Automatic annotation (TrEMBL):
It comes from Vannella robusta. SMART domains: GEL. This is Gelsolin-like domain-containing protein. Keywords: Repeat. GO terms for molecular function: actin filament binding; phosphatidylinositol-4,5-bisphosphate binding. It holds the Pfam family Gelsolin. SUPFAM superfamilies: Actin depolymerizing proteins. One of its GO terms (biological process) is actin filament severing. InterPro entries: ADF-H/Gelsolin-like_dom_sf, Gelsolin-like_dom, Villin/Gelsolin. One of its GO terms (cellular component) is actin cytoskeleton.
Length: 312
């Protein structure tokens, strides 16, 4: 890009993964700032996993690859048993995120690449699109030279399921067989004493904060996700907002009397709810229902306590 004074301009992106430590996040920000000072006429932009802007993603075509765990120094990042979840709606935003290699992490709306040492499988769900299929082929070619096994949902064979442990429940509802997954997420919070609702166009599992509630508009259903540390007023207002949202009618927002409101407690999300997120971290979901504050609240509810517990 060029500034008005013909000086070269730069964008310095620094990307932070879900499980990056606080120290690494701080160091990445400092490093980006140091680079910006040297280049001058530059802009520093923080990017978090699963919320990458298109311009950032365009530098990694034909697909962005995100691996689990620490970056290996010598070991092949594609060695061992691995499962990559591929999702995208165009040639820029398609990406492959590694997830736990279990059947429950499959999604009929997307494509996957399953690696087990010398075997590579491409699994195409019934609702996967052309961009996802093309990206899965490219990723498989990077992992192993030679023959790659391409299987389609419903015709996998025993070898495929054996690598995943067994054939189990996963997102396979018929509504996900056609078209790309579309949903809108609303963050509901009253941490400052005033109930507010924010619409998030791009969202990830990290937006599910234990102190808040969330409304996920999935078309035929409105999921009301209840954070483990959300107060009673926030829960009540969130469910009330969900009903008003369904009843609201305008030229662009038709009334949906058949739409169902489904309450979901943190840590007990059904696979259909998980389907709207690109990869689902089971450990993070479990932690969200077992937070420190939740334990304190449970202990406070026990009437046999001899003395009140101190606040943290």
């Amino acid at each position: 890009d060029q500034a008005g004074n013909d000086k070269p301009r730069h964008i310095i992106y620094f990307w932070q993964g879900w499980h990056a430590s606080r120290e690494d996040k701080g160091l990445s920000a400092l490093l980006a700032g140091d680079v910006a000072k040297r280049l001058r006429f530059s802009q520093v932009v923080r990017v978090v996993q699963n919320k990458e802007p298109d311009h950032f993603l365009s530098h990694f075509a034909p697909a962005t690859i995100v691996c689990l765990g620490k970056r290996p120094s010598k070991v092949d990042p594609f060695s061992g048993k691995r499962l990559y979840h591929i999702r995208g709606t165009n040639e820029v935003n398609v990406s492959a995120c590694e997830t736990i290699p279990l059947a429950r992490n499959l999604n009929t709306n997307d494509s996957f690449v399953l690696v087990n040492n010398m075997k590579v499988f491409i699994w195409n769900g019934k609702g996967s699109n052309a961009y996802e299929k093309l990206a899965s082929e490219w990723l498989a070619s990077r992992i192993k030279e030679g023959e790659v096994y391409e299987v389609f949902e419903g015709d996998e064979g025993e070898a495929f399921w054996e690598i995943l442990g067994s054939k189990g429940e996963y997102v396979s509802q018929e509504k996900f067989h056609k078209g790309d997954i579309k949903a809108v997420l609303f963050e509901c919070t009253n941490t400052i004493g005033v109930f507010k609702v924010y619409r998030l166009e791009e969202f990830s599992q990290q937006d599910l904060l234990s102190k808040n509630c969330v409304l996920l508009d999935a078309g035929d259903k409105i999921f009301a996700w209840i954070g483990s540390d959300a107060n009673e007023k926030c829960k009540e207002m969130t469910l009330d907002t969900a009903q008003k949202y369904i009843d609201f009618e305008s030229d662009e927002h038709p009334k949906r009397p058949a739409c169902e409101i489904v309450s979901v407690d943190a840590g007990y999300e059904p696979v259909e709810f998980q389907a709207y997120f690109h990869t689902w971290d089971i450990k993070s979901a479990a932690d969200s229902r077992d937070t420190y504050q939740s334990k304190i609240n449970q202990m406070r509810a026990v009437h046999t306590l001899a003395s009140p517990l101190p606040s943290r």
